[in-house]
Each structure stands twice: as C-alpha cells, then as structure tokens.
Design goal:
mainly alpha; 51% helix; 2 domains; three-stranded antiparallel sheet
Length: 194
C-alpha cells in the first residue's frame, strides 16, 4: 500500500515537473487535489495556475497549429502503436512530448509550424484520440498522418500540403481523406519517462 502511494506520488512529481496542470495530475495519479497542489508548490515555489484546459478546437485553428499538433501525434502513435487510439499511454505520451519538444525547436526557428503544444495540450489530444473527438487522417499526396477534429472541415485538408502551397508550390485540389486506422505506422519502443 505504501509502495503504491509512493509510486503515485513520484508519478505526480514527474508530471508536475513537466508542467502538467494540477487537475490533470490529480486525475492521472489518483492523488487528492490538495496533495497535488502542495507538491506543485514545493516543486515550483508558487500556486498552480487556474483556468480551463486547452480545447482541441483551439489547438486546430490554423494549418500551422494543426501541423504542430500532427507532429506530436505522429510521435505519440509511433511510440504507443494503435493502442493509443483506445487508451492514453502515459509513458508514450511523456516520451513523445519530450521528442516533440526536441524537434519543435528546429522547426520553430524556421517559422514552419505554429506555437508548440505543452504537456497539457498533448494530454488533451491523447484523450480526444481515445474518444473519437480527434482523428488521424492520411494525406494521399504527401502520405503524412495529420490530426483533425471529428466532424471538422479541417479534416478535409492536410495542413502540411496547405503550408507547402502557401510557400509558392504548385496548387493542387484538396486531397481525398484516407482514415489513418487503415494506414500502417512504424512502432517505436517507449522507454520509461525521465
């Protein structure tokens, strides 16, 4: 019993150090909110910030934001396999976000993608993949898996192709959407989070 609580506390500390909101940390770790808030104060030296979690629709407002979120999702799915479409894989989520942050620094310098997503937005995306509110599609032109909201007009267009066209490449008709569930994705083995 004590070992289980110690493991949950260590998990909460790891998530708080990565910047996860206390409400999510409490939900994921199973620790009570006052305990998580106290841990947050010990780690960061201040009160946790309030407010709502990011919404999927807010994360997919522009082609640049959709492309940025799609980079994270590609890493997450490669690490967690198709199981991430059915349940949130915390180890894969943390590793994918760590890899995403390393890659996004290079892409942000080129102003290719939108604002980087934080760990809270990554959690929202992972959660919404399991509920079907977020879906993966495969672009028939560039073969990239991209993220789109369910029943959203953004699902009809690959954000990377839109960004390419905006840079003067040849304009093409919008691609036909191919469900990502039918397309294979290479699997990367996840290691435990740092």
């Amino acid at each position: 019993m004590r070992l289980e609580r110690l493991n949950r506390t260590q998990q909460a500390v790891t998530l708080l150090q990565r910047g996860m909101r206390t409400s999510l940390v409490s939900h994921v770790s199973g620790l009570r909110s006052p305990v998580v808030r106290e841990l947050h104060h010990e780690i960061h030296g201040d009160k946790p910030s309030g407010g709502p979690l990011p919404s999927l629709s807010g994360l997919l407002l522009s082609p640049r934001l959709r492309a940025s979120a799609s980079v994270f999702v590609a890493l997450y799915r490669a690490l967690g396999g198709t199981e991430v479409l059915h349940r949130v894989d915390l180890a894969a989520l943390l590793k994918a976000h760590q890899l995403y942050q390393a890659q996004i620094e290079h892409l942000a310098a080129e102003a290719t993608l939108g604002e980087p997503i934080d760990i809270n937005a990554a959690w929202v995306i992972a959660r919404d993949l399991t509920t079907g509110l977020a879906r993966l599609h495969v672009c028939p032109h560039c073969a990239v898996h991209y993220l789109a909201g369910d029943l959203s007009r953004t699902a009809l267009h690959c954000p990377l192709c839109i960004l390419k066209r905006g840079r003067g490449w040849r304009r093409q008709r919008p691609p036909k959407v191919v469900p990502a569930e039918t397309a294979p994705v290479p699997r990367i083995e996840a290691t435990s989070p740092p």
